Amino acid sequence: MIFVGDGALLWRAVRHAQDGGHPVDLVCHGPRTTPPAGFDPDRARRIRSGRELDELAGELAQRCTDGLLWSIDNPFLLREKMLASGLRLLNVHGGPLPSYRGLPPVTAAYAVLHGETSFAATLHEIDDGIDTGPVLAQVEFPVEPDAVLEDVLTDLVEAAHRAFTENLGPVVDGTAGPARRPGGEPGYYGLEQGIALAGMRAHPRYEQATDLGMFSDYYPDAATAWGS
Description:
This protein has 228 residues and is an alpha/beta fold. The chain has a domain at 2-99 and 119-141 and 149-186: Rossmann fold. It has helices spanning 7-19, 50-55, 57-63, 80-83, 104-113, 149-173, 191-197, 206-210, 220-226; strands spanning 2-5, 26-29, 44-46, 68-72, 88-93, 101-102, 118-125, 135-142, 188-189. The strands form two sheets. The protein has a seven-stranded mixed beta sheet with strand order 3-2-1-4-5-7-8. The protein has a two-stranded parallel ribbon with strand order 6-9. The longest helix has 25 residues, at 149-173. It comes from Pseudonocardia kongjuensis.
């Protein structure tokens, strides 16, 4: 299997797959992290953009021994060549779909702003939209009334890891799902919505919704824009 993404959550998933005896053929990762000590350097490739990843589509398809590509904390859009590679593309998304598509720190911030009482990580198939593919599983968790963004992101990281670990085996053996198109009102929270959040300082839950806490270093642009 191939992994694409960045950050500690990606490498947790890679380690879990390896510990379970699954073949990790290649990890394509961004600049925020480097492979952990002991990881085979021939099975890691640093990439800078979705376009660069797209140019690797043929190589990834050839190197993948089980036909699976996992997108974990992935900042890169999968483009035309990747979608046509013949690989089965799966993404762990930070938010319940279709209501909270977009960037995880932004989806979680708006969940707090909206006063949501629960949130979720979602495992879904990747199609040519952004977080629009059929859903295989969701891992939900409660959001307390006094929760700040740091709290929701902490729980979201663990929910995302569970969405991967609890479904890795079923995906591999073909028992996951069935994939479904979830109901609900679609919503999207990307870069534009993240920028717009800075103009909502009069909202009574603004401070809760923008308190990144220990995640400030991981999302420095958001921390600066929101005054965290």
